[in-house]
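Q: what sequence does this backbone want?
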C-alpha cells in the first residue's frame, strides 16, 4: 500500500508491528535515513539492538547471499518483542534477491524495513510494496519538515513550550539548511533549553542557528542601513586590521541590501516579505531587518543597489587606482547619507 506524505509522517511515529515490511525511498539519503531511524526505533524500542531484535544488512549482501535475508526474517529471537530486519541501499538490481524472502513472509516473522534511492514507477521492488495488502511504501520528497513535524520532533525530545514566533523561525530555518544540519540544530536547541522551563523564543533560535556571516560585518551593515555614518570609520579600521577584504564587504553589502529590497518590495507588504527571504532572518535581527526595510522603502533601496553595483564594478576594474578599502568606505558613507534623505 502507498502511504501519502501526510500519512507517512504519522506512520513512521507509530508503525504497525504486524506488517510484512516498509519500503522508504527517495532522492535525499539524509531524509530517508532520519525517517527510517524513527520507524525502526518505534518498532523495536530503545533496547532493540542490544536485545538482538534488529538485524542490519545492505542490498549488496542480500544479492550475494539471498538466504541471509530469509534466515534473518525467520530467526527466533531470544528476547521477546517485535523484530526488524533492516536492508539499506537497496536498488532495483537487488529485487530478485529480496522479493522471494518477502513473498515467503508469515505472521510472527520479523518485519522488513528497506531503504532505497529513487525508484521508477515500474520498479518491481516499489510495485511489490505498493500493491501488497500487508506492506507499505513511502516516498520521501525533498520538502522541508512542516511545522507539525518540527513540533512533534521537539516534543519527543521533551521540549514542548514553544512560542509561535520561535516555531515560525524554525520553519524558516528548515527551508534554508539540509535535514541533517536541521536535526543537529534541534538537538542543540534541546540542550540549550535543558533545565529551562520558559518558552522558546526567537532569541533562542538566533542563538543556536548556524552562523552565516561574521558578527562585525553584520554590525557594519546595520550601521550603514541605519544611517550611523559616524560609526563607519572606527569599525572599518577594526575590519581592516583583521584582514577583511574589500570584496567580502561589498558582497555582504549587496546581499544585505538585496534582502532589504526583497522585504520592502514584496507585493504582500514588508511583514509578509520578511517571511519569504532566503536565507531566513531570526530573532531580534528579524525585527531589525524589517525596520530597516520599512525605513528605506523600495525606491531608495533600488538606488542603494545601484550604488553598490557601481562600487563592485570599480573594485574589479583593471583601471582602478584608488585603494580598494577606501573605495568601499566612501561607498558606505554615501549609502548612510542616502538613508537620511
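A:
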Amino acid at each position: 500500500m502507498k502511504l501519502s506524505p501526510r500519512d507517512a509522517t504519522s506512520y513512521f511515529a507509530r508503525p504497525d508491528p504486524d506488517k510484512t515490511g516498509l519500503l522508504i525511498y527517495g532522492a535525499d539519503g539524509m531524509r530517508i535515513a532520519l525517517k527510517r531511524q524513527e520507524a525502526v526505533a518505534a518498532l523495536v524500542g530503545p533496547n532493540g539492538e542490544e536485545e538482538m531484535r534488529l538485524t542490519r544488512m545492505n542490498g549488496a549482501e542480500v544479492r550475494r547471499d539471498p538466504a541471509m535475508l530469509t534466515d534473518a526474517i525467520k530467526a527466533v529471537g531470544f528476547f521477546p518483542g517485535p523484530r526488524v530486519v533492516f536492508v539499506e541501499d537497496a536498488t532495483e538490481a537487488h529485487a530478485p534477491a529480496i522479493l522471494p524472502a518477502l513473498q515467503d513472509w508469515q505472521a510472527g516473522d520479523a518485519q522488513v524495513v528497506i531503504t532505497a534511492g529513487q525508484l521508477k514507477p515500474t520498479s518491481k521492488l516499489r510495485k511489490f510494496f505498493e500493491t501488497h495488502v500487508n506492506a507499505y511504501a513511502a516516498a520521501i520528497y525533498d520538502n522541508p519538515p512542516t511545522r507539525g513535524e518540527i513540533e512533534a520532533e521537539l516534543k519527543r525530545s521533551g521540549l514542548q513550550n514553544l512560542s509561535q514566533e520561535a516555531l515560525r523561525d524554525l520553519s524558516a530555518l528548515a527551508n534554508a539548511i539540509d535535514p541533517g544540519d536541521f536535526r543537529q540544530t534541534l538537538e542543540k536547541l534541546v540542550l540549550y533549553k535543558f533545565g529551562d522551563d520558559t518558552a522558546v523564543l526567537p532569541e533562542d533560535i538566533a542563538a543556536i542557528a548556524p552562523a552565516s556571516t561574521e558578527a562585525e560585518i553584520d554590525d557594519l551593515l546595520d550601521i550603514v542601513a541605519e544611517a550611523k555614518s559616524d560609526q563607519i570609520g572606527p569599525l572599518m579600521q577594526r575590519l581592516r586590521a583583521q584582514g577583511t577584504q574589500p570584496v567580502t564587504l561589498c558582497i555582504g553589502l549587496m546581499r544585505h541590501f538585496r534582502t532589504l529590497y526583497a522585504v520592502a518590495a514584496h507585493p504582500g507588504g514588508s511583514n509578509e516579505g520578511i517571511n519569504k527571504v532566503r536565507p531566513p532572518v531570526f530573532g531580534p535581527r528579524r525585527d531589525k531587518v524589517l525596520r530597516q526595510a520599512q525605513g528605506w522603502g523600495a525606491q531608495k533601496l533600488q538606488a542603494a543597489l545601484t550604488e553598490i553595483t557601481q562600487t563592485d564594478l570599480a573594485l574589479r576594474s583593471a583601471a582602478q587606482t584608488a585603494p580598494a578599502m577606501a573605495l568601499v568606505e566612501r561607498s558606505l558613507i554615501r549609502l548612510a547619507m542616502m538613508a537620511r534623505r
